[in-house]
Design a protein that fits this description.
The chain has 265 residues and is α+β, with helices and mostly antiparallel strands. Helix content is 33%, strand content 15%. It folds into two domains: 2-201, 3-Layer(aba) Sandwich (L-fuculose-1-phosphate Aldolase); 224-265, no CATH class. Strands 4-3-2-1-5-8-7-6 form an eight-stranded mixed beta sheet, sandwiched between helices. Helix 2 (13-31) runs parallel beside helix 7. The longest helix has 19 residues, at 13-31. The relative contact order is 0.11. It binds zinc ion. Residues 40, 108, 110, 174-175 line the site of zinc ion.
Length: 265
């Protein structure tokens, strides 16, 4: 009975629209570099069925996901409708956050700059650091008790209980979970979550005069420049060092500028 109901619901106009929204959010997150390989998931509760969810499938890169790829699952992660299998562990975090924290849309990512902050002593972003960070003031929780990969429901339940109503939770040594009442609201927060994290991680220019709060910046090495954004002055040898695609001889721009545009990986 449930399988017939699930199939009918899955192909309804409302579900097609919701699947398209979730797929678009995944592709947009991939476009902005907020994903990691084929890991991590976005899920959204089915309206009127709080025990059923839409989820991205196993093995597809976020940039590849279309509405027809999204699958319908139950709270235990069993596929009710859809063309793909799901990652068995996906619902260990998502299921608990939906059920315990009462969030309709849950986006879990290992996006690089926000995840870098989870490696610090504070584990999270100071929400008083910038205008964009301030939009999260009072909406962020920290779960510092990382116990390894989420291989059972206990990890997700601890994360969900640590949220205490927050929309964003930083997972120590792990990543972030961003939640919202709707897919577009959650994605908007996910996007603006990444920007202040990037500013927090990026060191000030050498010799620049720092504001008070910048004095607390960690003395870490700067992140390697992206191959897509390499524009530093260098010799061809140094250029090879700063561009990941270093095995190739790269065209040089004027006056020793690295004018190469790296192939995206
Ligand atoms: Zn994770």
């Amino acid at each position: 009975m449930d399988s017939t109901l699930a199939a009918d619901l899955f192909h309804s106009a409302g579900m097609r629209s919701l699947r398209a929204d979730l797929a678009l959010a995944l592709r947009a997150a991939a476009h902005h570099g907020l994903g990691e390989g084929v890991c991590n998931h976005f899920s959204v509760e089915v309206p009127g069925r709080p025990d059923w969810f839409l989820l991205n499938p196993r093995g597809l890169h976020w940039s590849e996901v279309r509405g027809e790829d999204i699958v319908l699952i139950d709270a235990e992660g069993r596929v009710l409708a859809g063309a793909h299998p799901v990652e068995p562990t996906a619902m260990f975090i998502h299921g608990a956050v939906h059920r315990i924290a009462g969030k309709a849309c849950v986006m879990h990512t290992h996006m690089p700059y926000a995840t870098a902050l989870t490696l610090t002593a504070a584990r999270a972003l100071d929400t008083t650091l910038s205008q964009n960070a301030m939009r999260f003031h009072g909406r962020v929780a920290v779960d510092a008790a990382y116990n390894g990969l989420a291989l059972d429901a206990g990890e997700g339940e601890r994360i969900a209980r640590a949220m205490h109503g927050a929309d964003v939770v930083f997972l120590g040594n792990h990543g972030v979970v961003v939640c919202g009442a709707r897919v577009d609201h959650a994605f908007d927060d996910l996007y603006y979550r990444s920007a202040p994290a990037w500013r927090r991680c990026w060191p000030p220019p050498p010799g620049s005069r720092c504001c008070r709060w910048r004095r607390s910046w960690p003395r870490a090495s700067p992140p390697r420049p992206s191959a897509n954004a390499c524009s530093r002055s260098c010799s061809s040898k140094a250029c090879a060092g700063c561009c990941p695609d270093s095995g190739r001889r790269r065209p040089r721009g004027r006056a020793g500028q690295c004018g190469a545009v790296g192939r995206r990986r």
